[in-house]
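Bug #77: duplicate submission created two jobs. Keeping one. Sequence:
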Amino acid sequence: MTEKNQGTHNSHLEAFWSKSAEELFQELNSQENGISESEANLRITKYGPNRLKGKNSSSAYLLFFNQFKNPITLILIAAAILSSLLQDRTDAIIILLIVVISSCLGFWQEYGASNAVARLLKMVQVTATVIRDDHEIAVSTESIVPGDVVVLSAGDIIPADCILLNSQELFVDEAAFTGESYPVEKQKGTLETNTPLSKRSNTLFMGSSVISGKATALVIATALNTEFGKISARLRNNAPETEFERGIKKFGFLLMQITSILILFIFALNVFLDKPVLDSFLFSLALAVGLTPQLLPVIITVNLSSGAKKMAAQKVIVKRLSAIENFGSMNILCSDKTGTITQGKVKLYKAFDINNTENELVNNYALFNAALQTGFKNPIDAAIIAGLKNEEQQLPAILDEIPYDFIRRRLSILVELQGFKMITKGAFQEILAICNQVQTSNDSMAPLTSELKQTLIQLYEQYSREGYLTLGICWKTTTTNSISKEEENNMIFLGFVTFFDPPKESAVAAINNLNSLGVKLKIITGDNALVAESLAKQVGIEGPVVVTGSSLRGTTSEALVRKVLQADIFAEVEPSQKEQIILALKKRDKSLVL
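Kept job's structure:
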C-alpha cells in the first residue's frame, strides 16, 4: 500500500470522539466482539502494518554521501582532481585522504547516534490482546487494524488510537502528549467535535500506557494515522539547515568566488605579460590548489565530535554534529515542563483544615485512607504515604472500603478507631457534595452553611490558582462494620490535601545561567495554565506571560508570531501546536534551538 493511501484510509473518521460506538461500528464494519481473523488479514493488506515506518535500507548510504555536500569539501575534491591533472599525485592523495577521514568521522558519529534508539527497540517485542472470532488472542501490535477490539489492563501499552467501549477504573499515562505528570481518567462517552486532545476522556492514544483499571476499546487509527504517528512523521522530515551549516555554506561559496577571481585575474595578468598560455594556466591551477584550506574540514569535524563526546558524557545523544555549534549561537531555548524543569513526580505539599492551618487529624485521616485502601496504589496515595507516614505510627485495622470510580470520584474506607469511622477522600466538589457539617477544630463541628461552603470553595480555588492539585477529605461515624455507596452522605468536611510536582534543584541555577548568557527560556507544556505559571514563578521567571493552546487556535500567522514572541509559557497545548509555536519563533529568529 502506498504511503498516500495509508495517510487517508480513515479520513472519514475525523472527530471520532464525538461519535457513538454504534456509528463507529457501522463506519468501520466492526462489532463489539471484534472482527474475524480473515477480515483482519484483508485489512492488513488494505491499510498496511501498524508500525511507524523506519528508515529505508539506503539511509546509511545517503548519510555517508551527505558528508560530501559541504562546499568546502567539494572545493577540496576539485583541488585533488586539479593536483592529479598537474601530475602532483602526492598532493592529490593527501587531499583525498583528508576528505575521506573528515567525512568518515562525521558519518561514524551521526550514524551511531541515529541507530541508538533503533537498537533499543529491536530488544522489545510488543503484543496486544484483541477479540477475533469471538475469542481473546494475543497478536503482534503490527497486526492490529482499524475495527479491531482490544482488551487492555494495567501495564499495557496502547497499540493504536482507540475509542473506549467499556472501562473500569481506567487511568492512563499520557505524559508524552500532554506533559501531565498525573494519570488521566478515561471513560466511555461522546464529546464535542472541537474537544482538544488533552480533554478527550473517551479516547486512548497510541504510545500511552495503562496505569490501572481495565477496558475494551475499538481501534480507529493505526500507524501514521495515529496522533503519535503524525508526530513521528513530522520528525522524519528533513531536518532544517542549522545556522552553522548556513555559515559554512556561505564561507565555502565565498572561498570559491575569491579563488575563481584570483585564478582568472592571475591567468589574465600572465597572458597580458606575454607569458606562455599553457604555463599561465598550469600556474593558476596550482594556485587554486594552494589556496584551498585542506585541513579545515578535519578541524571542524574533530571539534564538533569533541563537543558530541562531552554531550554524551551528560547522557545526551547528538544526531547531527552541526547541531553542536547551535548551542553557542542560540538565544531562545524551548523546554517542556514535566520531567525537564520539574522532577516529574507527585509530592505532597500539605494537608490542612478549613482554617488553612496544618492539622494532625487531617494528616492522620488522609494517611489512613491512602495506606489502608487495597485498590490501585496510585501516585497520589503514594505521595501521601511518603509525606506523612513514620515508622512508629500504628495504623488502625480496615474493616471495609468502597473503591474509587469515575462517577463518584472518591474513595472511602471504614476503620475501627474509637468506634467505626468512615473516611472519604476525593475530588473537592464531590466531597463537598456529600457533607452537611464542617469540623472547625479537633473537637468542634458546625453546620455547613452557604457562607462556610463559599469559604471552602475560595480556599480550593486559591490553591488551584497557585498550581496545586487539591483534594478534599471528610468522615463520619457509623454503627456497622460494613459500608456501601449509599452511606456516602451527611458527612463531616475535615480539610484539604494538596500536591505538586516540585522543580528540580538544578532548574533555577540552569535558568539563571541561561539568562546570564542572553538565552531566553520559553516553557511549552500540556499542563494546566495555573500550574505552569506557578512553576515559572518558583524557578525565577518574574511576571510570566501565559498563552494557552485554545487561544492559539484560528490565529493568523502574523498574530501567532507576535504572541509567541511575547509569551514566556505556552500551556495546555497539543503536540501539533508545539510545532506551530516553533515555526513561528523561527520566522523571527534563525538562531532558535530546542
